[in-house]
PLP-dependent aminotransferase family protein (Pilimelia columellifera subsp. columellifera), 876 residues
Amino acid sequence: MTGTTLDDYTDRYARRVRGMTASEIRALFAVASRPEVVSLAGGAPFVGALPLDAVGEMIGRLVSDHGPTTLQYGIGQGTPELREGICEVMALSGVDAGCGASPDDVVVTVGGQQALDLVARLFLDPGDVVFAEGPTYVGALGVFQAAQAQVRHVSMDDDGLVPAALEEAIAAAARAGQRVKFLYTIPTYQNPTGVTLSEARREQVLDICERAGLLIVEDDPYGQLGFETEAPRPLRARRRDGILYLSTFSKTFAPGLRVGWILAPHAVRDKLVIASEAQILCPSAFAQAAVSTYLRTMPWQEQLKTYREVYQERRDALLEALLELMPPEMTWTRPGGGLFVWATLPAGIDAKAMMPRAIAAKVAYVPGVGFYADGSGAGNLRLNFSFPTPERIREGVRRLGGVIEQDLATRRIFGAVSASGPARQRRPGADAPGPGLA
Amino acid sequence: MTGTTLDDYTDRYARRVRGMTASEIRALFAVASRPEVVSLAGGAPFVGALPLDAVGEMIGRLVSDHGPTTLQYGIGQGTPELREGICEVMALSGVDAGCGASPDDVVVTVGGQQALDLVARLFLDPGDVVFAEGPTYVGALGVFQAAQAQVRHVSMDDDGLVPAALEEAIAAAARAGQRVKFLYTIPTYQNPTGVTLSEARREQVLDICERAGLLIVEDDPYGQLGFETEAPRPLRARRRDGILYLSTFSKTFAPGLRVGWILAPHAVRDKLVIASEAQILCPSAFAQAAVSTYLRTMPWQEQLKTYREVYQERRDALLEALLELMPPEMTWTRPGGGLFVWATLPAGIDAKAMMPRAIAAKVAYVPGVGFYADGSGAGNLRLNFSFPTPERIREGVRRLGGVIEQDLATRRIFGAVSASGPARQRRPGADAPGPGLA
């Protein structure tokens, strides 16, 4: 009835957003952004590595020479020019015309986040189950939870998603009569772990999903940010069908423009466009022109190389500092690319409970619990190496090591406050990376 | 279970998007954008009226001087700088600090469309009822239908929404036990009619909604585009509570940047931010910097004046051409601002059925049926005057008049193909504007 008040409305909605952790992370970032704090908490690319004068000149001309088009409304699917550019970018990773990737099947989105949200809007009903790596991208969890879907984590190790665990999850869902809508996976330089699904497992995961008729949502924001070696080809480069491929220019060009995309099977593409039009009418013609002109007129592959070099140096700084400055009970991943390292604290230390002490010591990270839908991850934390300089990274790890040592000392004196089972004690060596993955 | 195919998925979703008319309108725009066609179908502002060289220079400097910020991620609510600028813009219309409008309560969105979508996401459950003017903005209908809400149109006349009709709709919903979530209204220079809710009725509508505890969603994209006289103050300038106020820079600056906003009561604002973060993570830092720098450093109020003058001249051209070239059975609105005129065809002519003949005669419009959720509007069409030049407008009306005359002649010879009741025969005079509103 009409007799409800605004408070009633908001109370009703409050039930719907239950479980979202975005606001917690937001509060954390607000603290972490203070200049005196070394933030290993972010996920920001180092856009300072771009040739800003040249990009500025290019972008200015988009208005002075082409304003009547770039400042105007566009079409919901995105400009043909950008969709062609996107296909060239995907071809670098092996997702090309040979595997049926056509500009016609690309939908331009407001960053990778809108891509995820459109997929959720298209496919998820309340109560549906989504499989995802454990841990996984916090923004995906937010989308799935907003859609009132249940996330079932599939365990990982150093080679990524464990195929046997995926098969087991599928069987368990079948026994429970659950409706599983898709597997959401970030197979390459995953957020938050930095782990990559191995070559051999890619085929296994594809086979398992094909047999089960399970749609795969492949999120690939980091695939072109490999360091020593190139990343294995995306899942979508191996199969045409049953995969929605999502990516973004946020990590390879600039997140401030908010340009991402979905490569979708033809039948789905139209519905994604309709859903996107209802949501945002059309993506920014200006941002699209900025990206497509950047791809057409500037040395974007050289820029990718620059990003890779900068991030590799910073990853090395982080791994070296961890090895030197962390207590021996600590473990962590050794990512071959991307932006993140995932660390496991000594047994019994809770990453979220430790945050106030870390902030007091002027260092920030993201507690691992935010990357799980089921409360796991208490002993984990995500460390970002793309944004801070090597010197800042080293200083941050030094501060973090001090906080952890202090927590360990407190525990030795007073005993554990909350026991949470024995942590894995494996310490990474040069050729045997520690996973730190529950 | 997991054994569903991609086709099953899309079939399922196909049920959800039923009722959307966006794709029809998209197809229409594709035809209408051919250069030989005079399009009165669009809704585009004339961004060519902007000082493109100066804007280009300003925008280029945002990258060369401030790239590390403007190309980076931002926060979900939008930058404080832009939210302050938005409050200055709203103050021009009377929505100011005095009525509790604070930068803190503004949420920046991807144009007005995302604002609408967030409101729908926050408040609408399947089966809910939304009241809206009949006719109303087609993009709002798309959002409400995607949310599986039912739209009940409230009738309008030359003074806008009819208060008695609103009261009747509220009573009818109460009798039927329906859950009405809000009144969606565009009170000023409405899309598609150009009609403005009169000063006296604004208070009546507010009182009615307050008594019924009915939330108002006030959409105000055109309020600052008044011609001879200023628009009445927005509803939100009159009451603090129970109103969500939506607007956009698409009509007053440039739609290609996709920047709009919601002014929301404090309790709702946080939830809108969380919902927006799940949808797009954050609005474009670059687009926000472009708008806030435009507001801070360029003569934006002068630009508003320019837009008004250009549009007034074009509206006059449209109204004069209609008066001169249309058959006497035709009626239309005389908007005091905005972008659109709403016309009513001679009895028995169907605007959608006439489209192929209009396109053959190289003129395009939007058939009225798209602006109703209930199939009304067959005899109506929306004519845009903001984008085409006065000469093109006159030529378009000449072509359209020919098509209508031909349809009338055919009807006189062969009789009506589909009778749809007598149309209103009132022809607008200089001081007695014809409403053409069912």
User: Anything to note?
Assistant: Chain A has 14 helices and 14 strands.
